[in-house]
Design a protein that fits this description.
Elements (H helix, E strand, L loop, with lengths): L6 H16 L7 E5 L4 E6 L6 E9 L3 H8 L5 H4 L3 E11 L2 E8 L10 E12 L2 E8 L10 E2 L1 E2 L2 E7 L7 E7 L1 E2 L6 H24 L1
Parallel strand pairs: 6-8
Antiparallel strand pairs: 1-2, 2-3, 3-11, 4-5, 5-6, 6-7, 7-10, 9-12, 10-11
Length: 207
């Protein structure tokens, strides 16, 4: 089992990577899916042979409450239908931890349940927040799960000045599911999962 990395340099590098993704011009993205709740684009990832996905939508709530529902904590399991378990393995400080979580099978179980161990970090960004993460090679892989790997991922949530009580939520996700999977199935699942994430989150925030 690899030792845990030092959290401060990892958090700083992760934040810088997400800010760089956030500055990628519109022309580099290709539309993948559009629903009433969110728009999803993609571009080839620099990290692995799959795609970096960008999802964006307006959410009716304040930034802090939205991010509290996304980052590791008690809310996430209540509403995220894809996530089946979550354990905080290590806590470095209030906004920084290592978590292990599992996801349900997808696409009629073509994609079997997955397990991830992620370093998670939440920090301020402009007038809002950024919560981001990256997978670590840490902890034993549990039986019945394939260990997936999240390359740098994150969610920017900033208040919309023209719409009080609303926030713009922009996510960057690049998940390497691993295992023997057709890439087309992964791409279909990712676009739909990200669009559903917004609709599920909106329902949870209204409760």
């Amino acid at each position: 089992m690899n030792p845990l990395p030092s959290p401060a340099p990892l958090a700083s590098k992760l934040r810088n990577t997400l800010v760089r993704y956030h500055s990628i011009g519109d022309g580099e993205w290709r539309l993948a899916k559009k629903t009433k709740d969110a728009t999803v684009w993609r571009k080839p990832s620099e990290e692995f042979s799959g795609y970096l996905y960008k999802a964006q939508g307006m959410v009716e709530d304040v930034t802090n409450r939205i991010v509290d529902h996304i980052r590791p904590g008690p809310y996430r399991l209540d509403w995220d239908s894809l996530m089946t378990s979550m354990d905080i393995m290590e806590t470095f400080e209030e906004n920084c931890c290592v978590m292990r979580y599992t996801t349900a099978g997808q696409l009629w179980n073509i994609i079997a349940p997955r397990e991830f161990v992620d370093f998670s970090y939440t920090t301020s960004y402009e007038d809002g927040l950024l919560t981001c993460g990256i997978s670590l090679d840490y902890g034993e892989v549990r039986p019945n799960f394939v260990r997936g790997f999240n390359h740098p991922c994150g969610w920017f949530c900033v208040p919309l000045k023209d719409f009080p009580g609303h926030s713009l939520l922009t996510g960057y996700i690049q998940t390497e599911l691993r295992g023997m999977l057709p890439q087309s199935a992964v791409d279909t699942a990712m676009s739909s999962t990200l669009a559903n994430f917004y609709s599920d989150l909106k329902k949870a925030l209204k409760m």
